[in-house]
């Protein structure tokens, strides 16, 4: 059994895998990391291996625990990823984006892929059919948009994401929901259309904490899978590390 751990900018996501099957997924706060991980090991004593990727912030206690309990593999920049990296600043490319690109290459061979991760930030990553990683875009995530508007104005309240029923917001709340949610949906549709125009056949994968919420309203055909990063870690372990 494998424990895959994704340390994001806000939360930690972990999943227990038995070969290619995801047995259970866990989401927890960074402050509870080692306590929650201990619970996972109690529930699944057969976990012998782990794979971890982090957007950068250190999680020393979790790291030590994984090292103590499992044969741990930490994904870092020196790893031989299954794509050619054409980013002009590869040293600053997020590890999470590299894991997502790897997962897309392994799960969707031979096609152009656009991976969209709607998390703290929304990232767009494009890997062409020759497995060349080209780059993409980074924009503020859903929650970040609400929080920024509240934090950087005098009058705007802090709201939680709500699907607007109207396009024309007729109150402060309705205007903010329309601006944030419809705004992000237009952004997604706009990017997707542009990639499709340029590359015709593009497989689109939507993941991250807001994937399910956003997928409901997207017109384009996409694969929505909020576990895509964890599954990509499992694929990396199964097909590039284990063998
Ligand atoms: N308890 C929660 N805490 C934070 N975000 C939440 C929570 N529940 C739902 N979300 C939604 O999930 C989004 C964040 O996604 P996710 O959990 O993938 O981010 P993350 O942990 O920072 O990971 P990453 O850094 O990879 O984006 C937010 O925009 C928010 O709308
Ligand atoms: C963009 C985020 C914050 C998304 O999690 C992360 O991938 C990151 O810190 N990236 C570094 C910058 C870059 O990818 O070019
Ligand atoms: K993200």
Automatic annotation (TrEMBL):
Its main location: cytoplasm. ATP binds at residues 6-13, 120. It comes from the Bacteria. It is found in: Cytoplasm. The active site is at 96 (proton acceptor). Substrate binds at residues 87, 94-97, 172. Transmembrane segments: none annotated. Its cofactor is NH4(+); K(+). K(+) binds at residue 117. Keywords: ATP-binding, Coenzyme A biosynthesis, Cytoplasm, Kinase, Metal-binding, Nucleotide-binding, Potassium, Transferase. Pathway: Cofactor biosynthesis; coenzyme A biosynthesis; CoA from (R)-pantothenate: step 1/5. A monovalent cation. Ammonium or potassium. One of its GO terms (molecular function) is pantothenate kinase activity. Gene3D superfamilies: 3.30.420.40. It catalyses: (R)-pantothenate + ATP = (R)-4'-phosphopantothenate + ADP + H(+). Its EC number is 2.7.1.33. Catalyzes the phosphorylation of pantothenate (Pan), the first step in CoA biosynthesis. Homodimer. Belongs to the type III pantothenate kinase family. PANTHER family: TYPE III PANTOTHENATE KINASE. This is Type III pantothenate kinase. It comes from Flavobacterium arundinis.
């Amino acid at each position: 059994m494998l424990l895959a751990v994704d340390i994001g900018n806000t939360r930690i996501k972990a999943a227990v895998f038995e070969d290619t099957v995801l047995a259970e997924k866990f989401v927890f706060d960074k402050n509870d990391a080692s306590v929650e991980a201990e619970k996972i090991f109690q529930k699944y004593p057969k976990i012998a291996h782990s794979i971890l990727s982090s957007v950068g912030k250190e999680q020393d206690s979790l790291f030590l625990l994984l090292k103590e309990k499992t044969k741990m593999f930490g994904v870092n920049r020196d790893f031989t990823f299954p794509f050619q990296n054409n980013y002009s600043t590869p040293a600053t490319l997020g590890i999470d984006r590299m894991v997502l690109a790897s997962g897309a290459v392994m799960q969707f061979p031979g096609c152009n892929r656009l991976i969209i991760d709607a998390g703290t930030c929304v990232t767009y990553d494009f890997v062409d059919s020759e497995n060349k990683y080209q780059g993409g875009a980074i924009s503020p995530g859903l929650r970040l948009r609400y929080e920024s508007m509240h934090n950087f104005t005098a009058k705007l309240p802090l709201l939680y994401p709500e699907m607007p029923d109207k396009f024309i917001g007729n109150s402060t709340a309705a205007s903010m929901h329309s601006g944030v949610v419809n705004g992000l949906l237009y952004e997604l549709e706009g990017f997707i259309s542009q990639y499709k125009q340029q590359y015709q056949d593009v497989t689109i994968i939507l993941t991250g904490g807001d994937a399910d919420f956003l997928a409901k309203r997207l017109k384009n055909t996409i694969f929505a899978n909020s576990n895509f990063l964890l599954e990509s870690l499992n694929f990396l372990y199964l097909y590039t590390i284990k063998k």
